[in-house]
Design brief:
Elements (H helix, E strand, L loop, with lengths): L1 H5 L1 H12 L4 H19 L19
């Protein structure tokens, strides 16, 4: 991942996790989860409001 090469926070994380005994594959898996959480929190949150989407009053036909 590019972050492992250029981002100092990520480099510190990789060094710490390597010292803990994790393999590079495990570290990359953890980093992917972290990136996914970062992206998710930056997405606009959709809040459902009655009438904003087809509201038939019943969930079942």
């Amino acid at each position: 991942m590019v972050r492992m090469k250029y981002d100092t926070r990520t480099q510190d994380y990789v060094n710490r996790r390597t010292a803990e005994g994790l393999s590079e594959k495990d570290i990359i898996r953890c980093l992917k989860r972290f990136v996914a959480r970062e992206v998710y929190h930056r997405l606009p949150q959709f809040t459902w409001q009655p009438g904003s989407v087809r509201d038939s009053g019943s969930r079942f036909p």
